[in-house]
Amino acid sequence: QVQLVEPGGGLVQAGGPLRASCAASGRTSSSYDMAWFRQAPGKEREFVSGTRWSTGSTYYGDSVKGRFAISRDNTKNMMYLQMNSLKPEDTAVYSCAARVRVGTILFQTRDDQYDYWGQGTRVTVSS
């Protein structure tokens, strides 16, 4: 129904920037919430950032506030995660996800609340 692809990722030095992209296709809807999650080896998947597509509201996990910024291009169904001041602990596989939202008020940050997932892109931050 909805396909999510995350081109990009790569290796970056600590302190540097990197931009991750998420391309959505198929039967998209403004009722979706979109989010970025990340998962490091041996760790649980963690909420990074998200946006309520219908309003443009944005949300950030505590570990990335002030460093990361989420944005979108409505005409291209693209979502971006601009990562600045990267730290080695940011190393993870980053995945975009979509949630079908029906009448909810609070933005959801649990990974099990999301319905569609991209394949993930690896981000490695070297010291």
Describe the structure.
This protein has 127 residues and is mostly beta strands. Helices cover 0% and strands 51% of the residues. The chain contains no helices and 11 strands. The chain has strands spanning 2-5, 10-13, 18-26, 32-39, 46-52, 57-60, 68-73, 78-83, 92-100, 116-117, 121-126. Strands 2, 4, 5, 6, 9, 10 and 11 form a 7-stranded mixed β-sheet that branches. A 4-stranded antiparallel β-sheet has the order 1-3-8-7, with no helix packed on it. Strand 7 and strand 8 form a beta hairpin. The model has no long low-confidence stretch (mean pLDDT 92).
| Beta-strand content bin | over 45%
Count of separate DSSP helical elements: 0
Order of helices and strands: EEEEEEEEEEE
What class would the helix/strand composition place it in? mainly beta
State the assembly state of the protein chains: single chain
Shape designation: globular
Measure the end-to-end span: 40 Å
Helical amount among residues, as a percent range? Answer: under 10%
Unreliable residue runs: none
